[in-house]
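Run log, item B.
One chain of 145 residues. Sequence copied directly from the ordering sheet:
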Amino acid sequence: MRKTLFALAIGLAAMPMLALAQQSAVGKWKTIDDETGKVKSIVEITQATNGTLQGRVIEILQSDHGPNPTCDKCSGANKGKPIKGMTILWGLRPDGAGKWAGGTVLDPAKGKTYKSKLEIKDGGKKLGMSGCVAFICREQTWVRN
């Protein structure tokens, strides 16, 4: 009986932490191509030491340029570098419950950067990732891995 009560107490104590984790963008996400609907990669979002969020490609699942594509259209330090391992999302700051804004996202296929924002959706199972130029935004829905 004592073990059952202890297990129940631990389970109840963990529930708020699980709910909080569901409202965080930190974790691994399957990126879904908004044109084809196919899963393209896995991006791991972490919290940087300054409190902002950043995302790094940890796995390429589908590419038109082979299993180890490089960022050929990128400029600067990313030019010709492997996309796997590349930081493609950075500088996002909290902007309300389950929302982050003010960041930058790199589209390795085009080699261009855009203003970015994130929003938790579907109880933490999905993430709306938007890249914006001026006031025109394009959103992809990523799925928690």
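Observations after the first pass:
- The first strand starts at residue 27 and ends at 32.
- The radius of gyration is 18 Å.
Flagged for discussion on Thursday.
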